[in-house]
Structure formats: structure tokens, C-alpha cells
Amino acid sequence: MTSAPKNRSTLSAVVKGGRGLCPNCGKTRLLHHYLKVIDRCPACGEAYGHLRADDAPPWMTILIVGHIVVPIVLIVEQAYQPALWIQFAIWPTVTLALTLGLLPRCKGIILAMMWAHGAEGSERA
Ligand SMILES: [Zn+2]
Question: What is the pTM of this model?
């Protein structure tokens, strides 16, 4: 086990990763083709291809989307009792849109945290 690299700010890396940018320099995209991790940053040369976030980004996305959608569904149901067909049209669409929007950001955050703390990733060990 290696110790966390020096001179790596977790907060700065997470902010950049959440924006989908290289956690080191913030100049290039960390992901391509929606969720594929770049092998190496073309701007700073930092390697990311060995990092494997596995199930953490989907779990993080589910946690966030669930905490956003479920209370809104319950509040709308209590306040307005919309017809069932309206709810079937709205809530799956909102859930899908939030999930697809947040998943790459969550993956960027997880990869940035792994990078900031010097995680080896499962492909190099
Ligand atoms: Zn970079």
C-alpha cells in the first residue's frame, strides 16, 4: 500500500473531476465516449487509464438521484394528486435525465478522489 501523494488537493481534484476535467491540471476532459477514462492527460501527462472506479459512480448516482426524486414525487403526490399517466410520463423521464447527467460527474469525482489519494487502481496491482 502506498501513501497519498504529496501536493494533491482532494478538494481541487474533486471539483475538477466533478466538472469532468483532469484532476491534475483541469485543462482536458477526464472522460471520453461518455464514461471511458482517458489513458493519459494530453496536457499534463498524468496517467488515469489504470484507475477503475467500478461500482462507486453508479452507487453515488443512485444515492443522489433517489434523494432528489423520491421526496419530490411524494410532495407532488401529497399536494396535487396528479393522474397516474402523468406521473408515469414525468418521473421516469426525470429520473433518467438526472441519472444520465450525474453519472459522468460522479465518475469524475470518484476518479479524482482515487487520484488525489494515490489509489493504485485494480489494473496495476
Ligand atoms: Zn491534465
Answer: 0.89
**What are 67-120's pLDDT values in tens digits?**
999 999 999 999 999 999 999 999 999 999 999 999 999 999 999 999 999 987
How many whole angstroms from 46 Cα to the centroid of ligand 1? 6
Q: How far is the CA of 101 from the centre of ligand 1 (A)?
A: 23
Contact 46, 37 (CB under 8 A): no
Record the cell numbers describing residue 111, joined without a space. 476518479
The neighbouring-strand residues paired with 36 are 32
Residues 76, 108: Cα–Cα separation, whole Å = 32
Distance 29 CA to ligand 1 centre (A): 8
How many of the other CB atoms lie within 10 Å of CB of 101?
Answer: 11
**Residue 49 Cα, ligand 1 centroid: separation in angstroms?**
13
In angstroms, what is the span from residue 5 Cα to ligand 1's centroid? 16
- Indicate if the alpha-carbon torsion angle 66, 11, 119, 1 is positive or negative: negative
Question: Are the beta carbons of 114 and 11 closer than 8 angstroms?
Answer: no
